[in-house]
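User: quick one - fold this with NAP bound?
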Amino acid sequence: MENISLNNGLVCPAVGIGTFMLSPADAENSVREALKMGYRLVDTANAYVNERAVGRGIKESGVKREEIFLSTKLWPSEYENPNAVDETLERLGVDYVDLLYIHQPAGNWLAGYRQLEKAYREGKAKSIGISNFEGEYIEELETKWEIVPQFIQVEAHPYFTQKELRKTLDRYDIKLMSWYPLGHGDKSLIQEPVFRKLADKYGKTPAQVILRWHTQMGFAVIPGSKNVDHIKDNLDIMDFSLTDEEMAEIARLDKNERYYHRTDEQLRQFAGWRPDFERA
Ligand SMILES: NC(=O)c1ccc[n+]([C@@H]2O[C@H](COP(=O)([O-])OP(=O)(O)OC[C@H]3O[C@@H](n4cnc5c(N)ncnc54)[C@H](OP(=O)(O)O)[C@@H]3O)[C@@H](O)[C@H]2O)c1
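Assistant: Sure. Structure tokens for the protein plus NAP:
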């Protein structure tokens, strides 16, 4: 597995498994199977309401905790809860996470970021990150952070490559972790002729070509899946490399267009919603 070097000296696997919209049963299954087949990066969040299930999947896999790069996210309802980090660790069944994000720039997000910094200093989070903090939000945070984050997690795929944001990231060596890396399964992205052509050339699937593009862009990538064949395919992308010409051809697909358009009203709703955390 290729690793990504972080600005605090740690490394993170380039490919992992995402668990957004997976029920607890599916998340437990996907995480266990993914780890058994060699994945070492797992991404979840308070808001996915499957952290306990992810923790069970990790235990059932038999893979040692220290070999796994575990990432989760505090939801805005937790930003002012002084026990949020400990409660998150308790749900996951671990005593530290490798990466802790604040999930949205909603509510008192600076209090949330201060919790990340505290968790980092205490060793409860080995690295920290911001999720969905593009534009004005990262600009404001830049003037306030005491610890520069290691990661930002944002929507990114060949139709939307975060060109603008990456200029800021490069200044601080903050790494990008792509969400919706496969366009949330959008067929029109996966079926772009260039991916079919390259898939045929390298003996891969179009989805594998897209994921390889992410890693060659320097992004960490966490495709979500509850299909064991897809999970296997999504890890099996390191035995070929796209040429500079092929990367340039894919770059021409960039429409600077997202799938997900968040509004200020949604941010207000995010701030007012509390996940109904799993009890067991
Ligand atoms: N920070 C945030 O706000 C945020 C937002 C969204 C997502 N995320 C994170 O990013 C991860 C990835 O996003 P996502 O899961 O929404 O979207 P995605 O990875 O772009 O797409 C997932 C979809 O693609 C399908 N798929 C997966 N592998 C495939 C393959 N090899 N061939 C064909 N189809 C395939 C899956 O179906 P099958 O189940 O049938 O494989 C699923 O429908 C999430 O799981 C989550 O961890 C974060």
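One thing worth noting: The longest helix spans residues 24-36.
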